Amino acid sequence: MKKAKLPSTIYVLLVFAFLYVPMLIVAVYSFNSSNSTGVFEGFSFRWYQELFKDEETIKAFYNTLILAITSAVTSTVIGTLAALGIDKMKKSWRRSGIMTITNIPMMNPEIVTGVSMMLLFVFIGSFLRINGVLGFWTLFIAHVTFSLPYVILNIMPKLEQINPNLAEAAQDLGCAPGKAIRKVVLPAIKPGIMSGFIMAFTLSLDDFIISYFVSGPKFQTLPIRIYSMTKKRVTPDMYALSTIIFVVILILLVLVNMNSLKGEQSKEKGAVK
Amino acid sequence: MNKKNLLRQKLCAAPHLVWSAIFIVVPLIMVAYYSFTNAQGEFTLENIYRLSDYTDTFLRSLWYGIVATVICLVIAYPLAYIISQMKVRVQTTMMMLVMIPMWMNFLIRTYAWMNILEDSGIINKLLGLLGMEPVHMINTGGAVILGMVYNFLPYMILPIYTVLAKLDRSLIEAAQDLGAGKIRVFSKVVFPLSVSGVVSGVTMVFVPSVSTFYISQKLGGGTFALIGDVIEMQFQVSNNFNFGAALSLVLMVLILICMAFMNKFSSSEDVGGGMVL
Amino acid sequence: MKNNPVVIDLKNISIELGGNKILENLNLYIRDKEFITFLGPSGCGKTTTLRIIAGFLEPDSGEVIFGNKVVNGVPPHKRQVNTIFQRYALFPNLNVYENIAFGLRLKKMKESDIRDKVKEMLALVNLNGFEKRSVDCLSGGQQQRVAIARALAVDPKVLLLDEPLGALDLKLRKDMQVELKNIQQRLGITFIYVTHDQEEALSMSDTIVVMDGGVIQQIGTPEDIYNEPKNAFVADFIGESNILDGYMLEDFKCKFSGAEFECLDKGFAKGEAVDVVVRPEDVDIVPIEKGMLTGVVTSVTFKGVHFEIIVDIGGFKWMIQTTDYEAVGNKIGLFIEPDAIHIMKKSKYSGKFGDYSSFSDEIEHLSDIVEEE
User: Fold this and answer.
1) Domain segments of chain A as ranges
2) pLDDT band, residue B132 (cuts 50/70/90)
3) Structural domain boundaries in chain B
4) How far is the C-alpha of A264 from the C-alpha of B155, rounded, in Å?
5) Could you say which of B160, C9, C151, C330 would form a disulfide bridge with C65 (CB–CB 3.0 to 4.6 Å)?
6) Is the pLDDT of residue C363 over 60?
7) C57 contact B CB<8A
């Protein structure tokens, strides 16, 4: 395998070039001084300045952030509780049934998830005779729903890894059952909860398809704002925006990976004794 | 743990169960309900009959999805294999690099390709500089498939890599030890053991490819409408929720059939093996 | 020990888990300061019994009595017993000090008292200076010591140990056995110990409870259990045994393997069928003409202190442990003293054990591993 190094290096470079060139183009044109997204005429921060002057975009940005935080917190709480409960269920049809339903939003095409929730909201809206039911709350519900499987999926393996006697040991030493979970089990699965939360957060930030169907004109998120702008001719301020989002998510990702790397290293240290 | 506490802990799952029932199960029932009713809420099969008008669209979506998935697999497998053979530290960095594009908004990523492929886009400008004739690329089926491959390639690399990285090296050595050559080691040991990764990769690329609408709008210029486009139109433009629901229902069933077909090839349980950050 | 008050009394305990009867009408009392061991193969109900005492399981019927109080329904955190778990169950988010202080903090002790107590406990388990270490960085033996310190810190009256040495290697296990016994004697508290390792049970316990299939097979001192096994199961599980079909001719006289023997047992009916146990080390090899039984050597294994010889006597394979070498194929005579013959009543285990012709040992060992996985 060592002999074949050069061709495989070239191959890896080619694939990465394919993946990164379009993104590079976005980043480069975000610094373009002209309003073309095709010709680079000079370096400037013009589009970043314009971006910060665009009130609708700024508002959409705040909306996205609020939505991401609230939905990620909610799905993390519900998901953590769910994982604790499901973990105690025996491996039976009931457990696998619950897991299957949990995973539906992950397996179903996003457009179907979006459409199905829209139908529910519109149905309830017409039932209650509310006009314009689509808004923050429908987005919130949708985002919590599609984040839940990812949160649970991140926590379950951690729960299975921890010593099954951990909670019992705490009770044995005088802890009431509920307190034992808080003092011992939750700290032990914290890495899973954290990565579940971050995943829910980034998924919410990035989601377009599902949001597109369950959002209304009153509450726009950034991806939806981007969509409505790409319907017309795009100016490079969208490029500036996505460069910023990209950098923010990049930092988040690096932080998470460093965190998990640190965890692994301390575990390795333990294994060496 | 005694029974009362056990029950109490199981009850922790209750909020999730209620949530899932209301916001996952009921919406799917709504899709079925709308599919078989008209705007007045009366039972009808009209929506189902009308589906036949869109047979071409369904077939095109399936075809594009399959082509994009196969291309992704062909590109991703060697890459995942090469990465899995690298030093562990390099592997982590490489996988970070694979995942990073996933986090740039896919609308923007797709739009960037528009700039590249346009008749007056970057590629044609480069060709012009080299004194060559411009090539028409945008608004073709190829451009749509390119967009799918570009957007969903990481979803193929990730699960295949995860499986290959976990592969026990001693198995390969054992096969070599027993006299298997490189090709045999791959076809008899490595590939069969990585099928579960391939299956989840294929699922993760195929499902969004078949159901996409934005990519075909931007890179296909509306001339290559896919099933996602038709659904989107029913809900956002023509406000025909009932027919849109019927289309969604069929899309869902189609994908279910494809997945069941896929799963016949592997009885793996860890679909979603690449779902970790 | 015999006169110490009873601290734990289990009365008619039965329990089913997942549709399987795990314990059936179990009766047992445990005296203060006793080192009592539940011994038996995987799935015999020994851990279940321990978990019932700790309060992690509620029996379907029967009473658990601490002192003179029925404690059925009292949750684990309100019981005056503490447990050492099989894989220690140290809290990974807390360091050694905080692990040991865990129970003390719940008791709302003063911080200075906690500090003293933790120090005392660390000294007890020979881990002075380990306070700040993370529990992930400790070896198996050290983790075990922390687990012991953590449980003992809250001054339990009774300590429950669930195969605490199972995950340690042989050498360390032997050392910890001695250490545990020392700690128990020094602190004068009751230890209830669960193991499937008969050597461990024999060397540490005051009392051994041999269990199988959710039923107590025998309770007694290690000497009693070894020398006077009550049935074929106990005889086979504790040490090596040749178990033969025989019958009593009269008091002090029995017949097996086609020969008559004197023995020390009486009170059986004339002609009553019995199981006869002869320990391998109690058989002497003598010249053929002096032998009470004769047989052919079929295998010899060097075991260090002795040879393990399998002898075919009339189709039944005996195991003999001896310091004399005999080559395979030799015809030898066997001599058995009357006090080496133990007579047992027939039980459901009769005829299941005692012949060394098969690889039964290895097979048993393999199945043990599978069950533990």
Assistant:
1) 51-235
2) confident
3) 13-47, 54-265
4) 24
5) C9
6) no
7) yes
The CATH H-level superfamily of C6-227 is: P-loop containing nucleotide triphosphate hydrolases (3.40.50.300)
Please tell me which residue, B32 or C358, carries the higher pLDDT value. Answer: B32
Please tell me the least confidently modeled range out of B73-87, B147-161, B172-186. B172-186
- Residue B1 contacts C, CB cutoff 8 Å: yes
pLDDT for C1 equals 66
- Closest partner residue to B208 among A78, A103, A109, by Cβ? A109
Q: Is the pLDDT of residue C358 over 70?
A: no
> Is there a contact between A177 and C75 if contact means CB atoms under 8 Å apart?
yes
Please give the CATH number for the structural domain made up of B54-265: 1.10.3720.10
Min distance A243 CA to chain B CA atoms (Å): 8
User: Residues near B74 by Cβ (< 8 Å), separated by ≥ 6?
Assistant: none
Q: Flag if A26 and B108 touch (Cβ within 8 Å).
A: yes
For B65-80, letters b (16+ CB in 10 Å) and e give bebbbebbbebbbebb
Of the ranges A227-236, B34-43, C95-104, which one carries the lowest mean pLDDT score? A227-236
In the complex, which subunits touch A with 3 or more CB pairs below 8 angstroms? B, C
- Could you tell me which CATH number the domain at C232-372 has? 2.40.50.140
pLDDT score, position A114: 95
C-alpha dihedral, A223 to B125 to B146 to B216, nearest 10°: 50
**Burial class of residue C319 (count of CB atoms within 10 Å of its CB; 0-12, 13-18, 19+):** buried
CB C261 within 8 A of CB C291: no
| Stretch A35-53: mean pLDDT | 81
Which chain A residues are Cβ-neighbours of C108 within 8 angstroms?
A: none
The candidate with the shortest Cα–Cα distance to B34, out of A133, A105, A212, A116, is: A116
| Predicted confidence band of residue A221 (pLDDT cuts 50, 70, 90) | very high
Choose which CATH entry (1.10.340.30, 1.10.3720.10, 1.10.760.10, 1.10.10.60) describes domain A51-235: 1.10.3720.10
Whether the pLDDT of residue C63 is over 60: the answer is: yes
Instruction: Report chain C residues whose CB lies below 8 A from the CB of B2.
Output: 55-58, 75-76
Q: Which of C78, C88, C92 comes nearest A188 by C-beta? A: C92
Rounded to whole angstroms, the Cα distance separating B213 from A107 reads 18
Number of Cβ pairs closer than 8 Å across A and B? Answer: 232
Residue C89: which of A163, A183, A273 has the nearest Cβ?
A: A163
Residue B273 has pLDDT above 70, yes or no: no
The ipTM value here is 0.87
Token pair listed for A154? 């991140």
| Nearest chain C Cα distance for residue B167, angstroms | 22
Q: Kindly list the partner chains of chain C, i.e. chains with 3 or more CB atom pairs below 8 Å.
A: A, B
Residue range B205-228: mean pLDDT, rounded: 89
How far apart are alpha carbons C349 and C331 in whole angstroms?
31
